Amino acid sequence: MRHKFILWIDDMQNWSHIVTSNLSILATKYDINLVVLPQLNGEDLEQIFMMYPFDLIVMDYHMEPFNGDKYIAQIREEEHLDNIPILFYSQDQNVDLNNLIGSMRNVYVTNRASVEDRIKEFIFPNI
Question: Across-strand partners of 87?
Fold first, then answer.
């Protein structure tokens, strides 16, 4: 059994439980132990990154006390976290997420409606 770890940072997690459930069903089908660790914001990231070898970070834009781009910048300051892809999303179509991330490496932008499909691309690439 393979293990996959996702850190999902979103202050409005009610909707993400549906996506997480769908992903868990798919993971079970392909003999993958999927662990999704939800966080309400990007606080205590140092401790969280010591807990699991994350395969993906899923990051919302609109959060308190900082928006997701600030947390992404903090994560990218840590050299040992450069290799973890970050999926950055917003439900607000008026926010230019690409402009916010600038030239940060390994950060991928999507809208909230496409988050589940994009996660599947990272976690289940050969399926």
Answer: 58, 108
